[in-house]
Each structure stands twice: as C-alpha cells, then as structure tokens.
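[PROTEIN RECORD]
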Amino acid sequence: MKSKVLLLVSSILISSAAFAQKDELKTLKKIYGREKISDSDMELYKTTLVNGEPLIAGSTEEDKVYFAYYKAVAPVLEITSSLSNPAKSTDPLLPLKILTIDKLNQFVSVANATKEYEKKSGKDLYSKDINQKITALKPILVNYAISLSNSSNFKDAAIVLAAIYYLDNSDLEKLYFAANYAVNAKDYKLSLDYYLLLKEKNYTGEGEGYYAINIKSQKEETFNSKSERDIYLKAGTHEKPRDEKLASKRPEIYKNIALIYLELGLASEAKIAIQEARKENPDDVSLIISESNIYLKENDMVSYKKLISEALAKNPNNADLVFNLGVISYNNKELTDAEKYYLKAIEIDPKYGNAYLNLAILKLDAEKVLIEKMNKLGTSAPEMKKYDVLKKQREDVYKSAIPYLKKVVELDPENVDAIRTLVGVYNAIELFDEAKALKALLKK
C-alpha cells in the first residue's frame, strides 16, 4: 500500500513540474509576442528564463528548441525594447552593453537551429518572425561593428559582420567586409576562412550599390537591394539615398587569399593561389613580386629572377624591381650586370639610397683581391714595383667608391655604417681633413 502511495506522490511531482514548465513557456511566448516590451516585461522574461532552465531538461524536443530560442533572443528583445524607450535610445553604446559577441554567436546558432527544426517538423511558428528580426537587427549590428572598428577592435568587428552573413546567407557583402576587418586585426586564419567562403560562393560584389545616410549616426550604410533600403527610407531612419555601380571584387579576393597563404608561410598553397589570382589580375605586378618572394625564400634564384624580369617587363620604371635584379646579379657574381641594374635604379630614382650603397660595396669588393696579391709579394725591387702598382689600383678602388658613399650620407645623414666606411676610405687615401669632418658628424 505504501509503495502505491509513493508512486502516486511521484506522479504528482512529475505532473507539477511539467505544468510549471508549460507555464514558463507560456509566459515567455506571451512576452515575446508583444508589440512593445516594457522594462518590467523584460525583467519578468529574464526571471522566467532562469526559473525555466532546470525544468526544461526532461522536456520534449519541441519545448527544448523553443526555450533555447527564447533564451538566445533575449538580448535582441532587450535592445528593441530599450531603443523604443526615449530615455535609453540616445545611448549609442546601448547595443554593445547588451549584445556581447558570445550572445550574438549564440543567437546566430539558435536562430538557425530553430528555423531548421521548423523546416524539418513542418511547423512555421517563428521562422518568419526570426527573418523579420534579422532584418531589423542588421543596421544595429552594422553600427555595432563600426563602433568596434572605431576602437580598433577589428576582430570582434569582423565577427559581428560575419554574424550578419550567417543569419542571412544572401548577404555576402557583410562577409566580404568581415574578411577585411579580420585582415586589419592580423587574424589571418579567420580572414582566410572568410575569403575562401567568398570564393566558394563565387561572390563578386558586382552590380548596383545602394546607400543611404543613417539619420541618427550620420554615417552612410549599405543595403542589399533598393527595396530593402526603401523600407528604412519610409521608416524615416535614413535619408539621402544614392546608387553606385560596383566593380567585381573577385580579383581582390583571389589576391588576398594568395597573400594570406604567404603570410601564414604556406608556400605550396600560396603558389596555387597566386596562379589563380594572376588569372583574375593579369596586370597586377604586385602578384608577380609576391610569387617571386616565395622562390626567394626557397633560394630558387633562377625562378626568382625570371619572375622579377617578367614584372619589370610590365613595369619598366619600377626602381625596386631593377634594384632587386642588381642584388640577384651581385649574389650570382655577375658584377657587370649588377652595376648596370644599380645604375638603372638610380636613373629611375635619383634618391635610391640602397642602390648607391650597393654600388659602393661592389666597388670596394675589388679591394680584397688586391690586398691578397699585395700580401703575397716579397721585398725585392721588382716585387716592390708591383706592390706600388697594386697600391695605386687599391687607391683607385677607394676613389671610385667615394661618390656613392657620399651620396648615401647626403641622402641619409644618420646612416652610421656608411659614414664609418667613408671615414675608413678617406683615412686609407690620406684625406684626413675629410675624415675628421665626418667623425664630427658621427659624434652628432
């Protein structure tokens, strides 16, 4: 008899919990459905979420899905409620105080899960409303991202803009800007994920750009379509609409993917990506240079020189490219070619200090061979004559380097190494006054 009583009591407890759980869901649903949610409504909503959390664990899948949605949408409801309050709506940082990155990510995940559940179950309780809330939330999230970027928090700004895409997969433009923000944050792995997704979705950004000024923030915002912008214009939140023809962003996306692979040190992936990028950007010399840098790091000087020559053919007045060819020739002991390229770099840019410096180094290199020969000579009369000839040649080497070293110091008076080298040259050919003046400059 006792066991039956215990069983009956247990059943009553389970039923009471189920009723309480249903009551909590009814309360949440009632507040959620109100056109205007007051501060007291919002407090009750939050309290109900706390009370309902332990009750929902043993519930049905449907109840779990909707309770999770009510919980995830709470910050969105709070923002909407607060913005309708004149005392609070003037606070530009309000959304930042309510909608943290974690809460935003939670809303994205749960909102999509709720729509998926309703699609699977055949119900349509909240899917349309979720889409409406996303439309209303977009400009708030855009302003949120702008606020984060203004404080140099580029990574969170990227995550916020990407969240807009994950809520609305048709809004690839927000993912594009999210990728750019991630680059600014130097989070190259995150930016690569976004760019690869843009590439996969074949995003070009071509077409018409629709813009309007947000009256409250006085900042221009972008819209996916003219009809979307019209909604905001009619609502009176935006003004001064304008349209703009947008060029394809596809070449830039391919280029950035290649450059990020380079930044991450993934040479094999970078080579493939650069080849794709060059097809999209056939006239972009920077891509050829970027590819050449891969081979430079791999010490493949043949491929490096070939690419630099290709880049130079497209841009013959690029002093950097010419100078690089000079460096390659010098490293390959092709000294005549090296001198030719350094002089050409100076011809293109008369203030190219490194070209003057490398010319001086190239000239002074001849000293080593002369010193070796001088050190091997004896003290006989014939050998002393040879010594004098070599000494004169050595002085000529020094004199040939002086104009280039002087130009380096003229262009960069703080180049200590160049000054010291020039002091040494002056002393070697007994130009002591010139050496003394340079030493004074060195002390300064």
Q: What stands out?
A: DSSP finds 22 helices and three strands in the chain. The longest strand covers residues 238-246. The two ends are 105 Å apart (CA to CA). The first helix runs from residue 2 to 32.
